[in-house]
Amino acid sequence: MAKYQCPDCEYIYNETTGEPHEGFPPSTLWADVPDSWSCPDCAVRDKPDFRLIEGSAVAEKVVIKPAAQPTAAKKKFPVKKATLGKVESVSDDKGPLRKWVCITCDHIYDEALGDEAEGFPPGMRFEDIPEDWCCPDCGATKDDYTVLEDK
After folding, report:
1. What is the phi/psi pair of residue 101, to 5°?
2. Which residues, 6 or more positions from 98, have their beta carbon under 8 angstroms from its beta carbon?
3. How far apart are CA 124 and CA 90, in angstroms?
4. Of 45, 56, 138, 146, which is most buried by a Cβ count within 10 Å?
5. Closest alpha carbon to 51 in 13, 20, 25, 23
């Protein structure tokens, strides 16, 4: 059975032992752990961030999927011009793109760059980030961010 490791705190989820305190009995396959599950040690990283440990065997699960359903269109962000993954300007009346800093760990969210790892495209305003989002470095809430002023 496979083992998966948290990239931040190095916690290891082992399919053989499961994680009974989290509600996953022994032999719970990684595929059966919800994508919304967070690392029980650091609570910073979610399941999609975990890495398969090389050399551990991946158990395959056969799943019969229903016919594909049409998906809703994703929200488009008003981007005028992008260069090398950085947005130069946006077509809205919200003013210039800003940088936000976490007051707990100094993580910076730059609206011009977005955050590909978090699924935020370049030009995404901090106010458009979901309210339940947390700092990817320390787990602080969105309320723990403040505008970074240029000096």
Report:
1. -120, 135
2. 111, 126, 147, 148
3. 9
4. 45
5. 13
**Average pLDDT of the residues of the chain:** 81
Cα angle value 70/49/99 (rounded, 5°): 90
Please give the torsion angle defined by the CA atoms of residues 9, 10, 16 and 19, in that order, rounded to the nearest 10 degrees. Answer: 0
Q: Answer whether 108's CB lies under 8 Å from 99's CB.
A: yes
Whole-number pLDDT of residue 66: 62
Q: What are 97's two structure tokens? A: 């793109």
CB 108 within 8 A of CB 144: no
pLDDT at residue 36 tops 60: yes
Burial of 123 (0-12, 13-18, 19+ CB in 10 A): buried
> Is residue 104 within 8 Å of 74, Cβ to Cβ?
no
Token readout for 106 is: 């100094």
In this prediction, residue 4 carries a pLDDT of 93
CB 19 within 8 A of CB 12: no
Phi/psi at 118 (5° precision): -95, -5
